[in-house]
C-alpha cells in the first residue's frame, strides 16, 4: 500500500492542451494533497471543466504531466483504466443510465470493473443510497426521479466504486434552485468524511464552507489560488475581483 | 388586485358531450359538415368494396373437394389451397420425413413462446438453448444423415419451411453482424473503420437479386474444381451479408442518438470499451431503433421470395408452381391471396411484437 502513504493525490505539471489552434489550458501547475477539497471557479470557457476532465482522461492533454495517485496519465490504456477506477466523477447533466434502475446504476461498475458479486455490490449500493438519502427509490428508473434526486444517485453511483478522489463538474448548474441545497448538503457531508474533492462550481457558499483552497481560472490559466478566507476577502488579481463582484452581486 | 387561494380547487368531471361513444364520434367523425360528408362517403366506399370481397372469399367459396371440378359456385376455390397445403408447407421434402420438419417447428414455437411470455422463469437458459442448441438440433433434424435419419438434400426443401429457414437464419445472423459493423464504422481505428464502411457501402449498393445471382452463378466459377457448396447455404450467406449491411446502418442511427454523456459516464466509472457498449450503449441504442430493426427483419422475411430466381422453391415459388400445373390452371388469384395471407400473418406478428417490446422497455413515465 505504497500509494496510501503518498500525501499527494494529484499533480499537474506544465499541463497544456489545445483544441485545434485554440489553446485551452496554459501551463497549469497544481498539487492536490490527499483529503484536500478544492473549488474551481471562473467564467465559462475558462478551461475549468476541461482541466478536471483531463484528470480522468475524458480529455487528453498534449503537453506536461498529470500524475494521479502516483500513476502518470499517458496513452497506456491500463493506466487510464486504473486511474478511472480510483477517480469518481459527477457530471452537470447527471448522465445516469436511463435503461437501468437506480440500484443497477450503482452496481454496474462495481460488478463489472471490480468483479464484486451482485449481493455484495447491492449491499454497498444500498449503503450509499442511504447516505445520499434515497434508499426507497432504488427500484425506480432515473427518469422517474427529480433532478436533485438524480444527481444524488449519480454521486452514490460514483461512491460505490470506492474512489480515492471525486471530481465534480458543475454538479448543481442544471438543477432548479430548490434542489441545489439537497445536492450541496450531500457534497458537504462527503467533504467532511475526508474525501479528496475537486469541484467546478459557482456555489460560493459551498466554497466558503468546505474548500481548503479556491482556484480562479480565466483564459485557460490559473489566475489565483488561495484559501477561501483570503480568496473572498482579499482577492489579489483584478480579474478575480471583477468576477467575484459579478457573481456575488445578485 | 391580489389573489390569495384559501384551499385548492376541486377537480370537476369533463363536460358530458366530450366523452363516451357519442362524444368521440362527434369529435372525430362529424365535427363539421365537410367532415360528416367525408365520413359518409368513405363509409359507403369501404362497405361497397368489402361486400364483393367477402362474397368471393367466404360466401361463394368452395372449401372441400379434391379436384377443380369441385369448384362450381363461382367464388374462391380454396380447394386448390387445400389440396396443395402439404406441398405449400414442406415443398418437396419427402413425405415420410415431414415429421422432422414439424418437430423442428414445434420446438421452435415452444422455445419462442417460453422466451416471450414474461411469467416463465429461466429466460437466460432458454435463450442459450434457442441460440446455441436449437440450431444444432434443427440442423440435424432437417438435414439428417446422422442418428439414423436419412439425408434430405436441400434442393428438396421448399414452401413455408424454406421461407422460414432462410428468414430465421438471416435474422439471427444479420443482427449480431450488423451490430459489429455499426460499432466498427464508428471505431477510432482507421483500418477497422474503413473496412466496415467499404463492406456496408458495397453490399448496400448492390441489389439483392444480383447478390443471389452472384452467389449461385459466379461463386462456383471462382471456386476450385470439385469444390462446391450447397446452393441454399450460398443463398443464406448472401442474404445475411446483404441484410447485415442494412442492419448496421439502422443500429448506427441508434448509436449516434446516444448522448455523449453516456459514453463519458461509462468511461469515468472505469468500464472498458466492450463493457460500456454491452451494458450501457447498446441496450439503449437497440431499444431506440427497434422499429428500424423490425423493419429490416420484415423486409428480409419478404425478400426471401427472391430465392426463386436461383431455383429455390420458397412459399411463393411453390404456390406459383402449383397453379402452373395444367390440372389447376386458373387459380392464380387464390394462390397469391393465400401466399399473401401467410406472409402478412408473419410480418404483422413481428410488427405487433416489436410494439409490445417498445412499450415494455419504456423506462420513463
From TrEMBL, chain A:
Gene Ontology MF term list: ABC-type amino acid transporter activity; ATP binding; ATP hydrolysis activity
Sequence intervals crossing the membrane: none
Q: Which GO terms describe its cellular component?
A: plasma membrane
The ABC transporter domain sits at: 10-244
Q: Which UniProt keywords apply?
A: Amino-acid transport, ATP-binding, Nucleotide-binding, Transport
Cellular location of this protein?
Cell inner membrane
Question: In terms of domain of life, where is this protein from?
Answer: Bacteria
Under the heading InterPro entries, the entry gives: AAA+_ATPase, ABC_ATPase_HisP-typ, ABC_transporter-like_ATP-bd, ABC_transporter-like_CS, MetN_ABC_transporter-like, P-loop_NTPase
Give the way it sits in the membrane.
Peripheral membrane protein
Note one Pfam family from the annotation: ABC_tran
Q: Which family does it belong to?
A: Belongs to the ABC transporter superfamily.
User: What is the protein name given in its UniProt record?
Assistant: General L-amino acid transport system ATP-binding protein
* Organism whose genome encodes this protein: Thiothrix eikelboomii
TrEMBL record, chain B:
Question: What compartments host this protein?
Answer: Cell inner membrane; Cell membrane
Q: Kindly list the GO CC terms recorded for this protein.
A: ATP-binding cassette (ABC) transporter complex
Give the UniProt keywords, A-Z: Amino-acid transport, Cell membrane, Membrane, Transmembrane, Transmembrane helix, Transport
**Keyword Transport carried by entry:** yes
> Where exactly are the transmembrane stretches of this chain?
36-59, 99-118, 125-144, 156-183, 195-223, 280-298, 305-323, 335-353
Q: Which PANTHER family match?
A: INNER MEMBRANE AMINO-ACID ABC TRANSPORTER PERMEASE PROTEIN YHDY, MEMBRANE COMPONENT OF AMINO ACID ABC TRANSPORTER
Query: Organism, per UniProt?
Result: Thiothrix eikelboomii
**GO biological process: what's one of them?**
amino acid transport
Describe the location of the ABC transmembrane type-1 domain by residue ranges.
160-349
- UniProt cross-references to InterPro entries, sorted A to Z: AA_ABC_transptr_permease_3TM (IPR010065), ArtM/GltK/GlnP/TcyL/YhdX-like (IPR043429), MetI-like (IPR000515), MetI-like_sf (IPR035906)
Q: What is this protein called in UniProt? A: General L-amino acid transport system permease protein
One of the entry's Gene Ontology molecular-function terms is: transmembrane transporter activity
Q: Which NCBIfam families match?
A: HEQRo_perm_3TM
Main localization (coarse): membrane
Amino acid at each position: 500500500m505504497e500509494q496510501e502513504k503518498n500525501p499527494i493525490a494529484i499533480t499537474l505539471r506544465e499541463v497544456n492542451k489545445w483544441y485545434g489552434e485554440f489553446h485551452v489550458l496554459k501551463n497549469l501547475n497544481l498539487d492536490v494533497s490527499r483529503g484536500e477539497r478544492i473549488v474551481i471557479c471562473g467564467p465559462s470557457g475558462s478551461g475549468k471543466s476541461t482541466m478536471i476532465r483531463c484528470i480522468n482522461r475524458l480529455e487528453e492533454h498534449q503537453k506536461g504531466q498529470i500524475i494521479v495517485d502516483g500513476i502518470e496519465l499517458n496513452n497506456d490504456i491500463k493506466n487510464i483504466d486504473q486511474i478511472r477506477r480510483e477517480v469518481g466523477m459527477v457530471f452537470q447533466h447527471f448522465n445516469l443510465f436511463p435503461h437501468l434502475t437506480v440500484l443497477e446504476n450503482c452496481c454496474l461498475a462495481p460488478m463489472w470493473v471490480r468483479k464484486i458479486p451482485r449481493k455484495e455490490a447491492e449491499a454497498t449500493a444500498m449503503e450509499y443510497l442511504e447516505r445520499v438519502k434515497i434508499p426507497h427509490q432504488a427500484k425506480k428508473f432515473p427518469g422517474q426521479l427529480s433532478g436533485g434526486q438524480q444527481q444524488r444517485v449519480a454521486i452514490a453511483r460514483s461512491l460505490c466504486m470506492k474512489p480515492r478522489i471525486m471530481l465534480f463538474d458543475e454538479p448543481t448548474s442544471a438543477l432548479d434552485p430548490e434542489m441545489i441545497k439537497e445536492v450541496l448538503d450531500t457534497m458537504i457531508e462527503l467533504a467532511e468524511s475526508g474525501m479528496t474533492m475537486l469541484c467546478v462550481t459557482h456555489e460560493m457558499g459551498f466554497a466558503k464552507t468546505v474548500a481548503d483552497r479556491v482556484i480562479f481560472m480565466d483564459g485557460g490559466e490559473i489566475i489565483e489560488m488561495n484559501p477561501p478566507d483570503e480568496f473572498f476577502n482579499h482577492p489579489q488579481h483584478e480579474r478575480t475581483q471583477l468576477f467575484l463582484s459579478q457573481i456575488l452581486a445578485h | 388586485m391580489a389573489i390569495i387561494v384559501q384551499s385548492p380547487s376541486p377537480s370537476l368531471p369533463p363536460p358530458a358531450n366530450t366523452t363516451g361513444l357519442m362524444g368521440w364520434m362527434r369529435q372525430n367523425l362529424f365535427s363539421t359538415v365537410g367532415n360528416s360528408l367525408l365520413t359518409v362517403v368513405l363509409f359507403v366506399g369501404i362497405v361497397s368494396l368489402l361486400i364483393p370481397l367477402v362474397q368471393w372469399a367466404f360466401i361463394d367459396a368452395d372449401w372441400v373437394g379434391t379436384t377443380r371440378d369441385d369448384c362450381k359456385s363461382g367464388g374462391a376455390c380454396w380447394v386448390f389451397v387445400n389440396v396443395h397445403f402439404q406441398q405449400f408447407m414442406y415443398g418437396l421434402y419427402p413425405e415420410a420425413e415431414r415429421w422432422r420438419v414439424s418437430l423442428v417447428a414445434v420446438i421452435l414455437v415452444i422455445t419462442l413462446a417460453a422466451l416471450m411470455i414474461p411469467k416463465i422463469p429461466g429466460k437466460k437458459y432458454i435463450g442459450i438453448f434457442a441460440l446455441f442448441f436449437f440450431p444444432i438440433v434443427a440442423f440435424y433434424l432437417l438435414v439428417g444423415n446422422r442418428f439414423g435419419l436419412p439425408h434430405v438434400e436441400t434442393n428438396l426443401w421448399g414452401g413455408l419451411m424454406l421461407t422460414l429457414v432462410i428468414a430465421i437464419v438471416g435474422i439471427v445472423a444479420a443482427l449480431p453482424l450488423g451490430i459489429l459493423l455499426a460499432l466498427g464504422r464508428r471505431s477510432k481505428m482507421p483500418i477497422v473503420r474503413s473496412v466496415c464502411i467499404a463492406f456496408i457501402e458495397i453490399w448496400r449498393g448492390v441489389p439483392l437479386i444480383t447478390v443471389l445471382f452472384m452467389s449461385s452463378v459466379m461463386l462456383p466459377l471462382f471456386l476450385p474444381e470439385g469444390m462446391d457448396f450447397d446452393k441454399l447455404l450460398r443463398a443464406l450467406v448472401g442474404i445475411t451479408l446483404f441484410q447485415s449491411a442494412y442492419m448496421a446502418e439502422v443500429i448506427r442511427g441508434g448509436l449516434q442518438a446516444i448522448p455523449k454523456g453516456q459514453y463519458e459516464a461509462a468511461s469515468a466509472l472505469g468500464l472498458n470499451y466492450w463493457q460500456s457498449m454491452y451494458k450501457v450503449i447498446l441496450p439503449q441504442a437497440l431499444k431506440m431503433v427497434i422499429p428500424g430493426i423490425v423493419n429490416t427483419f420484415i423486409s428480409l422475411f419478404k425478400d426471401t421470395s427472391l430465392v426463386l430466381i436461383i431455383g429455390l422453391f420458397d412459399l411463393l415459388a411453390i404456390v406459383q408452381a402449383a397453379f402452373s400445373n395444367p390440372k389447376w390452371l386458373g387459380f392464380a388469384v387464390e394462390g397469391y391471396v393465400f401466399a399473401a395471407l401467410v406472409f402478412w400473418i408473419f410480418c404483422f406478428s413481428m410488427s405487433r411484437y416489436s410494439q409490445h417490446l417498445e412499450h415494455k422497455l419504456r423506462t420513463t413515465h
